[in-house]
Design a protein that fits this description.
With 173 residues, this protein is of the alpha+beta class. It has three helices and two strands. Helix content is 68%, strand content 13%.
Length: 173
Amino acid sequence: MATAEQSVRLARAARGVNLGAIGAYTRQNAGGFSEDYSWSLGVQASKPILDGGSSRSQQRQADEQVKQAYLLQQQTTELVALDVWQAVLALDEAKAKLASTSKTVEQAEEGLRLARIRYEAEVGTPVEVTDARTALAAAETNHVNAVYSYRVAEARLARAVGVPASELPVTEQ
């Protein structure tokens, strides 16, 4: 951005009056006893009159580069904000899935407990206990996957906001 703005200043300066100072000092000794000293000073001013529109074109081009730099900065800011927002939504979704799978595990544990009680009371079958164990294993697998999804969502949010995941606020799972 600063480079583009500097280009605009240079392009505008090229269209203005250019001032310069000239100075010289000489000392001559032609082999005699006296020395000749001379000095001169001058000021020079110039302004381009006919340059075929080159300076105006350069200024317009520099102005457009500044506009493009501002638009790129705005677009980048919006993309970062969108990335952060999507990461927050993904984390919220993962948190909800984690809570849901925790409840499912609790229900599967309770189902297994009841199936064992029914089997011990000789009103249930071994198949019911096996089915309850299978349901518990599936619920625990889903919960492990939910924990993994939550960790990935945390890492994505940390990357989006530009901090290590360890610096994110700690949340319970």
